[in-house]
Amino acid sequence: MSRPLSARRFAALFSALVAGVAVLVAPSATAAAPETDLAATVRATMLQQHGDAVKQQWGTQTLREPLFEPTRTSGSWVFGSTTIPMTYGQEHGAPHMALFLARKERSTWRVELDGTAGFAALAAQAPSAVLSDGEKQTFAANQSNRAQALAPTGLGLPWPVNVAWWMGGGPHGNSGNSRPFSSIDFNGGDGRVLSAGNGRVYKSCIVGRSALVKVVHDNGYSSTYYHMYNLTTLADGSAVRTGTYLGNIGNELPCGGSSSGAHVHFSLLRGNTHISVNGMTIGGWTFYEGSQAYGGYAQRGSTRVSVGGRVTNYGGGGTTLPTGTVDAGSNSTVNLRSGPGLSYSAVGTVADGAVVSIACTSRGEAVEGVWGRTDLWNRLDDGKWISDGFVDTGSDEPVASAC
């Protein structure tokens, strides 16, 4: 069942957003700074590590000031995201985002950005109030697997398996003609964008109903999704699986850029660095760039699909079943049943916040769930049943076929 977006989850972040223009300045990431200057240190670190590359990619001499969006604090530790916004009207693309982790060391802020060995090392030391054990494991796996990341990415395409969407824009840069050609534009189906693989989800540049969404995958890759609305209500750092709902295709520009025609701007990264999709296999297709941005094609065996054609998602790794996140309300667990109703015997429990895979759905006994009354029940991949009233699937309708 779809859970309404909660403004209170995002409101605390807005006070940290500052718009403006910043020219590349490169002080040390750990330069001495008073505690109130953490924002300045995070911004300087972002520009130091990515400013030159972003300027070159975007063909500009100046950049808007990076956003500073802290989400968790504990003692001398702070975790959040920082994003270099695009200007509005800038050629199709997406802003550049990184997660940051900071620790106060006497009068010095140590700031590390995800996708680096320093971030992985600092993450391992962070208190659980700042990074969960699951997040630490994901960041460690992403770092250790990065050297082994290969062309068969293990990722699917960002919509349901065995469904075809339009490839509206072939391989192109994160800002149109910019290199590398890390991004592809897709649209079609019911417009619901799903995670391309297992990992952890994060949002940055949150404005109204939209944001830039990033999934950090265990296998050394990350993927980002832009222009969406009606985003997942999952909290930053939540575990997602292949097929977890992220948002709907749209023309949203929370952090600048431009868009014509609802779509998702899907990008492939290693760490927080964009990499070319040329020769990469995603969703069972190997993508090749053309002589110009937005050209190229997808190849699967002897089948070739050019821009404007329909590409079927054949999956890539992890579960290909639709997923949902358990919401137990004020309880810590939800009972699982042997059939689609409370009259069936309880055969186990599932924890609040767990991500479950849904094999099929059925109408059964009506239940008062977290968001109201529903007779929809989900049979999980282990054969047990849970009321849809306690599962956030991003939709009020069935997300799997009938049992």
UniProtKB/TrEMBL annotation:
UniProt xrefs under Pfam families: Peptidase_M23 (PF01551)
Residues reported to bind Zn(2+): H172, D185, H265
A single MF term (Gene Ontology): metalloendopeptidase activity
Listed cofactors: Zn(2+)
Secretion signal span: 1-31
Residues annotated as the enzyme's active site: H227 (proton donor/acceptor), H263 (proton donor/acceptor)
GO biological process, one term: proteolysis
Record keywords, A-Z: Hydrolase, Metal-binding, Protease, Signal, Zinc
Domain (M23ase beta-sheet core) ranges: 183-275
Cofactor descriptive note: Binds 1 zinc ion per subunit.
Matching InterPro entries: Cell_wall_metabolism_enzyme (IPR050570), Dup_hybrid_motif (IPR011055), M23ase_b-sheet_dom (IPR016047), Pept_M23A_Blytic (IPR000841)
PANTHER family, per the entry: MUREIN HYDROLASE ACTIVATOR ENVC, PEPTIDASE-RELATED
Stated name of the protein: Protease
Organism: Saccharothrix espanaensis (strain ATCC 51144 / DSM 44229 / JCM 9112 / NBRC 15066 / NRRL 15764)
Name of the gene: lasA
